[in-house]
Design goal:
Number of strands: 8
Radius of gyration: 17 Å
Oligomer: single chain
Helix content: 40-55%
Structural class: alpha/beta
Strand content: 5-15%
Number of domains: 1
CATH architecture: Alpha-Beta Barrel
Largest sheet: 8 strands, parallel, barrel
CATH class: Alpha Beta
Shape: globular
Distance between the termini: 16 Å
């Protein structure tokens, strides 16, 4: 992993924890990070609560200056108007969100978001100064038919074609067949796809963007396998699902440099 890319460990809570539970969780997370002598200069830790939790978590992080970043799980491609249930990027920015997840496989499947819709959301995020975490990944059927990298590369290329040079974004490779299954991709499998994704960035946006953009792996990430992923040159962190709801496990993942040094 290039030393110029600060690792990012992102905790996607999905549809879990109400606003009261989120306060207790983030307090416990901050205490645990401090207790384990976590160094935020080495690794960036960010949580992605449900929309209803964002204000509570923002207030807590700001009041106590906690070493935890804040992001949202989705946003609307629209900025305002008659779009019931949508949340625009300007609202998220007002809540001090730094990041927003875009194109997660669950959004693509449950809400039928195609590549053009995902690209529009990425454009909206950038328009409001949010850093989009662009999720890409293949299903088991895609894997069998096309191999591991074709679908993720095509999904990313559709986004890159719509955003200007110099845009800051993060890519998260999440093989759909690994999410929530307990069966993660091997570090070598993940590295091969992440390398292909980085080369796709290089092809569309040049060397500087390719070398500086962080590419994460997601899909059954645990404290017992994070070190293997983080040893690979093209993997710069993890988008963590279920394990991010367990404070001790999430902290152990965030402290992956300790595991890497021991291996």
């Amino acid at each position: 992993m290039a030393t110029t890319r600060r690792p990012l460990i992102a905790g996607n809570w999905k549809m879990n924890l109400d606003h009261l539970q989120s306060i207790a969780f983030v307090q416990k997370l901050a205490w645990a990070l401090k207790d384990k002598k976590f160094h935020e200069q080495e690794v960036e830790v960010t949580v992605f609560p449900p929309f209803t939790d964002l204000r509570s978590v923002q207030t807590l992080i700001n009041a106590d200056n906690l070493p935890v970043g804040l992001g949202a799980q989705d946003l609307s491609p629209h900025d305002e108007g008659a779009h019931t249930g949508d949340i625009p990027g300007v609202f998220l920015k007002a809540l001090d969100c730094s990041y927003v997840v875009v194109g997660h496989s669950e959004r693509r499947a449950d809400h039928h978001e195609d590549d053009s819709h995902v690209a529009a959301k990425v454009v909206a995020a950038l328009r409001h100064g949010l850093i989009p975490i662009v999720c890409v990944g293949e299903t088991s059927e895609d894997l069998e038919r096309y191999g591991a990298s074709k679908i993720p590369v095509d999904q990313l290329a559709a986004v890159l074609a719509e955003i200007p040079q110099g845009s800051e974004f993060v890519v998260a490779y999440e093989p759909v067949w690994a999410i929530g299954s307990g069966q993660a991709a091997t570090p070598d499998q993940a590295e091969d796809v992440c390398k292909a994704l980085r080369e796709t960035i290089r092809e569309h946006h040049g060397d500087e963007a390719a070398d500086s953009t962080r590419v994460l792996y997601g899909g059954s990430v645990k404290s017992t396998n994070i070190a293997g992923f983080m040893k690979r040159d093209n993997i710069d962190g993890a988008l963590v699902g279920g394990a991010s709801l367990d404070v001790d496990e999430f902290v152990a993942i965030a402290r992956f440099p300790h595991h890497v040094s021991l291996d």
